[in-house]
Amino acid sequence: MSRLPPVAVHDKALTALAERLGLPLGGAAELMLERRDGRLVLAGDARRYGQPLAVEFVSGKAAHRRRFGGGRGQLIARACGLAHGITPSIVDATAGLGRDAFVLATLGAPVLLVERVAAIVALLEDGLAHALGDVETAEIAARMRLVHGDAATELEALVVAADFPSQVIHLDPMFPHRDKSALVKKEMRLFRILAGDDEDAPRLLEAALDVATHRVVVKRPRKAPPIEGPMPRHVIEGKTSRYDLYVHRALRAD
Question: 55-247 adopts what CATH topology?
Answer without folding.
Answer: Rossmann fold (3.40.50)
